[in-house]
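Q: what sequence does this backbone want?
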């Protein structure tokens, strides 16, 4: 029998395929499970991916990487005894993207498996970790991120009228756009704002690039088209005289306006079109000029595509945005619409606008930097550092919480922003800067002749990476990152569940804070750039390969928050 010697290009190692392969190896084919193991015919056999879980704590990673708990083994096998043939399948695990298994044993807590760590380090790091810094699969499609907080009502919002809850929605829309673009989606933002307006200057100070148009630009043609479509739609209610009186929105109607109120039955829209998740109390809505303007902006943003519209709104504005969504549907727009709803932002003891909040955090960041670095905190370089660090602080404060939950901010002026301690954006940016400083130190060592240039990964023995913190950094951060990037697009694609969509938008911030804690612990414990002795170079280079992957991981994750890395502090 001839062997097939064709070798496939190895796939990047992934957690999910490994868990699935381990589950299939343990579960086997149903017909191969011994009668004594099946018990009665009502026994439930879990799906393969539910049989194992990945370890993540430093304590457990000392003796295992994956565990199938004894409760699962008892479900599959009599008395939880794993047959030798099954254990052999687990230990000889192979497959695309599957981590190599080194050992496995049944203990009181269950069947624990240990990965061949040297082989995993080599597979991930030797050729560069580029494939681990991007989504595992590319998607296609168009998404319009609509931010109701930025629409004219009837005037363009300003930093002084923008609430903290609305600022949270803007930052979330910006983050979602970066995540979706990374996955291959074409992303546009709505509404278009007047260039050189105060709100655009404010957003740019936060690193947000929002679409603009000349100050004298109008969207009147589309507004007229939307108005006409609504006047002729099947959901229009009988017109009522209104003259000089107050409209449904509380606005006084002036002479010269259309004397008949245009009212749309929104409840009929979502009932007759089978749209789930909309508030049954929407009822009938009077169409006002700012609503038509909002719809015309949506029409502009979706003009050239069959886009999904993702409305990123605060819980206070959710009802109003559902009205807008159903008006848009009534006008003939057939785009899929989803609502990403943010909880409130609370500031006990004070009330701040978005502008005041940013000004407070910038002042605190400057003060904290001056206390730590002294007189050197001056000039354009430090202005840029303080701007980015302030932006990072604001993002981590408003985006690290589940988007549906409230955020409570400490905005007492004497509180300050600490440059120390494992919390938030400052801590993350500081540890990113430490990696840049490390590589700068290495390059200076090369220039002085202390160290040779980093060799090709294929020339290194990655079994030198034995420190427990090294495996934790690879296994908990570098390898899983691509699957973390996949999640926002998967949630957007999911059918059912109604108008609202829940996306784990807090995960990148939490990932970066956790990474920074573990990297900081490792960096404080391990002297990476050791003595310039040849017999120590292999281990040093292996560590530099790992830390180079971490540096690129920081860049990739920060990019989804539209934060540039700080390279020097």
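A:
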């Amino acid at each position: 029998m001839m062997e097939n010697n064709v070798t496939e290009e190895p796939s990047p190692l992934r957690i999910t395929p490994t868990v699935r392969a381990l589950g299939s190896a343990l579960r086997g084919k149903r017909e191969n499970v011994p009668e004594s193991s099946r018990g009665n015919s009502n026994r439930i056999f879990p799906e393969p991916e539910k049989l194992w879980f990945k370890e993540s704590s430093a304590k457990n990673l000392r003796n295992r990487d994956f565990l199938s708990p004894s409760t699962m083994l008892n479900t599959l096998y009599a008395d939880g005894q794993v047959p030798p043939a099954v254990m052999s399948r687990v230990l000889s695990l192979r497959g695309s993207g599957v981590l190599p298994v080194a050992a496995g044993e049944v203990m009181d807590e269950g069947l624990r498996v240990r990965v061949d760590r040297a082989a995993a380090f080599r597979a991930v790091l030797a050729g560069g970790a580029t494939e681990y810094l991007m989504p595992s699969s590319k998607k296609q499609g168009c998404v319009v991120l609509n931010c109701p907080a930025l629409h004219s009502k009837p005037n363009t919002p300003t930093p002084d009228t923008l609430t903290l809850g609305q600022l949270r929605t803007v930052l979330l829309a910006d983050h979602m756009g970066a995540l979706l673009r990374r996955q291959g989606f074409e992303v546009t933002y709505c509404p278009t704002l007047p260039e050189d307006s105060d709100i655009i200057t404010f957003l740019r100070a936060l690193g947000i690039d929002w679409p603009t148009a000349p100050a004298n630009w109008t969207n009147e043609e589309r507004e007229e088209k939307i108005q006409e479509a609504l006047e002729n739609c099947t959901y229009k209610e009988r017109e009522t005289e209104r003259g000089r009186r107050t409209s449904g929105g509380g606005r006084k109607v002036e002479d010269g306006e259309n004397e008949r109120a245009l009212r749309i039955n929104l409840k009929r829209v979502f009932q007759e079109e089978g749209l789930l998740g909309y508030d049954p109390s929407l009822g009938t809505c009077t169409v006002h000029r700012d609503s038509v303007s909002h719809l015309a902006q949506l029409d502009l943003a979706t003009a050239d595509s069959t886009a999904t519209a993702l409305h990123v709104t605060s819980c206070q504005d959710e009802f109003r945005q559902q009205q807008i969504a159903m008006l848009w549907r009534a006008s003939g727009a057939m785009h899929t619409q989803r609502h990403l709803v943010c909880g409130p932002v609370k500031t006990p003891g004070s009330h701040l606008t978005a502008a005041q909040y940013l000004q407070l955090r910038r002042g605190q960041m400057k003060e904290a930097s001056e206390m730590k670095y002294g007189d050197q905190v001056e000039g354009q370089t430090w202005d840029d550092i303080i701007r980015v660090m302030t932006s990072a602080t604001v993002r981590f404060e408003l985006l690290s919480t589940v988007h549906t939950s409230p955020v409570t901010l400490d905005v007492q002026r004497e509180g300050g922003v600490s440059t120390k301690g494992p919390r938030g954006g400052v801590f993350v940016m500081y540890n990113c800067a430490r990696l840049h400083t490390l590589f700068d130190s290495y390059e200076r060592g090369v220039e002085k002749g202390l160290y040779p240039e980093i060799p090709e990964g294929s020339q290194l023995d990655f079994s030198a990476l034995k420190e427990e913190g090294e495996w934790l950094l690879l296994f908990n951060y570098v390898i899983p990152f691509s699957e973390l990037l996949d999640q926002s697009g998967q949630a957007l694609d999911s059918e059912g569940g109604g108008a609202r969509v829940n996306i784990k938008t807090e995960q990148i911030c939490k990932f970066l804070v956790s990474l920074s804690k573990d990297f900081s612990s490792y960096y404080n414990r391990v002297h990476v750039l050791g003595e310039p002795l040849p017999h120590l170079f292999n281990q040093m280079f292996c560590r530099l390969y790992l830390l180079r992957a971490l540096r690129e991981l920081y860049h990739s994750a920060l990019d989804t928050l539209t934060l540039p890395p700080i390279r020097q502090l």
